[in-house]
Amino acid sequence: MNTWSDMAMTQPLVSKMLTNSISKDRVSHAYLFHGSKGTGKLAIALLLAKSIFCKNKELGEPCNKCKDCQRIETGNHPDVHKIIPDGKSIKKDQILHLQKEFTYTGLESNQKVYIIVDADKMTNNASNRLLKFLEEPSKMATAMLLTENSQSILQTIRSRCQIMSLQPFNPSLVQEKLQEKGLSGANAKLMAALTNNIYAAMKLSEDEWFANARKLVVQLVEVLQAKPEESMLFIHNHWMPHFKERDQLHQGLDLLILWFKDMIYKHIENEDAIIYVNHMDKLEQFSMHWSRQHAIGHLYKIMEAKRKIDQNVHPALVMEQLTLQIQR
């Protein structure tokens, strides 16, 4: 989404507020873009940066062709600085380095923009340092903080930002756009259930690892249903070697959640809501094995397993326990 017109289709309120500010030359010194994953926080931040620097914009719309727009798009603009977590957090030294950059005169103008991705992951020291930075705003500097969890950011920082709440995309809209890009109806429906980020969905649909992950989820449910005594071997010989990283394991559990949701939809005869439309025969078979109450119970167990993964419980132990719980 490279234009405000495109952005208005998915984030109409935020787009209108920002374009009004741009047209009136009243861009705030600090913004906090808050929204769930895939709602376009970084895309909006980059679009706003283009609108600030583009010399050929019309009615607030950047041209997307000039040197400034192109360098912002590729991450090479000398006066647009992006900070991302160093490991699991954003550290004080990163903010200090940013402040040092801002003491220098802009290379091509006096305007500067900085974008802090996952701003909720700032350490206490980094947050306090940023607060001091925000307390002395420059008319020529614009801060953009991006977060999925605004409540984890210091209230004193939030109070100095204009908060922009981004709304989740409508899954049907995501599915429609994915089909326009060439995905089948079944694949588009699955991807839209997993993410509302069009780019991430397309990338995922082309990922061989993810294709194998989908197969393994189906196989796991088949083993749990037909050969429960072999489920532990399956977890250790097939599941864990594939889902090696915690993020990958989360993705596998998300796919498993969709399976048990589909079983519930099958039980209540809401087939339009079913995601795994290419496996209706298996869903029919599985729903005869697990009652609706069982499927609901297993959903809660899978979500609890995801919480344990976040709490750094050993992944293999989490999967062993989950497997035993579903077998009962």
UniProtKB/TrEMBL annotation:
Gene name as annotated: holB
What are this entry's molecular-function GO terms? 3'-5' exonuclease activity; DNA-directed DNA polymerase activity
Name any one Pfam family assigned in the record: DNA_pol3_delta2
Keyword vocabulary terms for this entry: Nucleotidyltransferase, Transferase
InterPro entries hit by this protein: DNA_pol_HolB, DNA_Rep/Repair_Clamp_Loader, P-loop_NTPase
EC number assigned by the record: 2.7.7.7
Annotated source species: Aquibacillus koreensis
One Gene Ontology term of the biological-process aspect is: DNA-templated DNA replication
Name of protein: DNA polymerase III subunit delta
Ranked from the top, the taxonomy reads: Bacteria, Bacillati, Bacillota, Bacilli, Bacillales
Specify the enzyme's EC class, one word. transferase
